[in-house]
Amino acid sequence: MTIEKHRQAVGARIATIRAERGLSLSELARRARIGKGSLSEIEAGQRNPTLDTLYAIAGPLGVPLTALLGEESGTEGSGEFLRAQILHVEHHPDGATTEVFWLRVLPGGTRTSPAHGPGVVENVLVVTGELVAGRAGAERHAGAGQTLQWISDADHTYTSTAGATAVLTIHSPG
After folding, report:
1. By 3-state DSSP, what share of the chain in percent is helix, strand and coil, each rounded to 5?
2. Model's pTM, two decimal places?
3. Which residues form the HTH cro/C1-type domain (predicted)?
């Protein structure tokens, strides 16, 4: 899929879910804390949203990131200091969703992820490097082979001074 077609597909998914939720463009923009014009351009496929923006939109819509980004393995999203590639999405019979990502945390800063829905749990297995991650103010350190877990219904951060790779799972209850 070309970048333009992917951008248009993401915009269409956002517009459809927003309409299903009965939210106006203005209301979703307010809840996501992004400009109404920016949201309009994203929905029209005229603007390429960052991973941070997609997370900001997914939260108020009450959907996992892949509901906006798409579920195709290999699809990538990026934000400042973080790159994520979808490895797998599993939909459970009870309506829960588990998303599995290959994560690259870039050195040089901290990536803050906005809160996800209630009961959403993140697990990070560090593959290479060292990572400091978790709920803002309660972050913990993990090296290669170690895992971190937290409930991500509050802002949470990812930091690596030299860079890190990890497998991230996000489990959203049904």
Report:
1. 30, 35, 35
2. 0.86
3. 14-68
What does DSSP assign to residue 118? T
| 109: Cα separation from own chain's centroid | 18
pLDDT per residue of the chain (174 residues) written in tens, 0 to 9: 687 888 899 999 999 999 999 999 999 999 999 999 999 999 999 998 888 888 889 989 988 889 998 898 998 888 889 999 999 999 999 999 999 999 999 998 999 888 888 899 999 999 999 999 999 999 999 999 999 999 998 999 999 999 999 999 999 998
**CATH tag, 76-172:** 2.60.120.10
What is the fold of 3-69? 434 Repressor (Amino-terminal Domain) (1.10.260)
Q: How far is CA 52 from CA 69, 71, 81, 91, 127, in A?
A: 12, 17, 10, 23, 23
Residue 85 φ then ψ, to 5°: -125, 130
Q: How far apart are CA 72 and CA 48, in angstroms?
A: 18
